[in-house]
Design goal:
heterodimer, A: 338 residues, eight-stranded mixed β-sheet, four-stranded antiparallel β-sheet, globular, B: 316 residues, mainly alpha, 13 helices, binds adenosine-5'-diphosphate, binds iron/sulfur cluster, binds magnesium ion
Chain lengths: 338, 316
Amino acid sequence: MTTELLNVEQLRTHFYTEKGTVTAVDDVSFTIHEGEIVGLVGESGCGKSVTSQSIMRLYDEYMVEYEGKIEFNGDNLLNYPIKKMQKIRGDAISMIFQDPLSSLNPVFTIGKQIAEPLMLHHKKSKKEAYERAVELLALTGIPSPEKRVHEYPHQLSGGMRQRAMIAVTLACEPKLLIADEPTTALDVTIQAQILNLMRDLNKKLQMGIIFITHDLGVVAELCDRVMVMYLGQIVEEADVKTLFEQPLHPYTRGLIKSIPQMTGERKSELSVIKGNVPSLTNKPKGCRFSTRCEFADEKCIEEMPPLKTHSDTKKVRCWHYEEIIAREEGGHVHASST
Amino acid sequence: MGIYILKRIVSLLPVLFVVSVVIFGIVHLTPGDPASYMLGEEASPEQVNELREELGLNDPIPVQYLNWLGGVVQGDFGDSYFMNQSVLDAIFSHIGPTLSLAIVAEIIALSISIPIGIVAAIKRGTATDQSVMVVSLMGMAIPSFLLALFLALIFGVQLGWLPVAGYQPLSNGLWNHLQYLILPAISLGAIQAALIARMTRASMLEVLNTDYIKMARSKGMKERTVIYSHALKNAFLPILTVIGATFGALVTGAVVTETIFNIPGIGQLIINSIERRDYTIIQGIVLFVTLIYVTINLIIDLLYGFIDPRVRLDSK
Ligand SMILES: Nc1ncnc2c1ncn2[C@@H]1O[C@H](COP(=O)(O)OP(=O)(O)O)[C@@H](O)[C@H]1O
Ligand code: SF4
Ligand SMILES: [Mg+2]
């Protein structure tokens, strides 16, 4: 087994808002190993971004409270003073955001934005940093990088911008890269290119990647392991293969069913999970998914299921998953009412 | 770039033309004229009419306008009816105090308002933020003449720290010059400071919420760098617009302040000239102030392009 890079234990993230305190991440535990690509999936609003930004402690400290442990190379980041945290950010851990246009500073050149962390963390001179910036842009596959370093974000195309942002995050060769929906804002062909790039870089630089997406199709292509998140909790964790072969949690099953299938020329009818994610101020008392689950019973509504280890590689948070699978294998699966 | 500036300057001409028509119309259509003022109250209507004839004031207004405009485009704004001076000489001998006052007021306003706007944004929702908001609201609400009287009373009369009124040119020494300007500059700049502080706060708040600020933090940038480099450069654009608009207001708003503090600037000149219907001076000052106004806005626009690369491209 490879070495542990990040170990998150019982993480809870509470925000102080005008409507009172809300808990956006609620008892999340997981481990990332060196060089591993782990997917974090779930519908929007499930707490994927909050989880990832909590790891880097990016929220205003007086608006947020973290509980639990975020161990990186054995140190609990939650105990770090902010100055020490700043040394980790952009150096050992860095982050790619969803929208490259809004995430790159419009008034700075691409070169400056890549050079900044190098000058800060690696004490490179301005000249060295810009030279490295050109190399990094080349590494991400941007044509004529010597020219691009002097350009501003608005002068690049969408795909190019995302590559530039990847170059920024790779500058200091992080051990852990958190990519928060890096392809959602891009069109399909560019999405595929960026995924290839991430795969290459992962092999070349041996960095661990947390890949956040709401698209299970992308996970199937890229990741080694997957964590499925629902309303602030991890409801299922598995290696990619078994997740698709045998999803355990009703929510995961719903997600897989809703992946668009290309059948011949036409997309098959999408089945979507009924209902909406409840708001953080209105969370169900028992199983978080009980308001939308077709198998929900009295127990589900009253009691929250624990995250249970099903096998070496699989964990699941559901009271009835065994019965549900058994029923299915016995061929008694009820046709979904949709 | 040169062509762009030239284009912008040319585009200002229509503005100046319209202003010249409007001010000429207003001046010539309001009752009273320089002739009757020159001759005093005892003069008979015949005498007044004779003088009007002599001064060309009986010509049709469009003709008078064209005569005047003909001079203006050649740089001749005419002569004052009362002072033994050309209009330009009169303006230049009064513009110094006004510009000094405006600049000192702007410097005081900026050096207070931008820092407190930034602090309020960083500490949004706290007592500090709320005090900034309340004080700036007061700054906007209090009439500048009241503030002027108040300041003169406390710092001039009661404490005796600064002169109550008067003016000394820069050639008499920097401190001599400044000490007469501080109180008027504060009373004149208070509204500006309040507006700029609020704009700084609002603009910073918006920028601090953007993804690129989060990104800057995620790169490990120190909070100081995040705020003063990444955020402020973006937040500065709307602030700059307010600065431009308010600097023009400083020049025009100086009328009241100059009167209270007895500063021999454009404000006093125009008040005296209106009183005695010194047409050419009034017209000259209004055109001149308009020119200052549009020039400042042009400079602001150019600065915009300098700060924001997106604007730079669009203007090509
Ligand atoms: N700064 C914040 N303050 C309060 N609530 C927040 C904040 N950021 C996110 N949330 C809430 O946390 C929940 C999870 O959001 P997020 O992690 O962004 O979802 P996603 O899975 O789509 O990335 C949402 O309900 C969101 O409204
Ligand atoms: S615990 Fe109950 S409600 Fe929750 S997912 Fe399992 S069956 Fe559905
Ligand atoms: Mg998100």
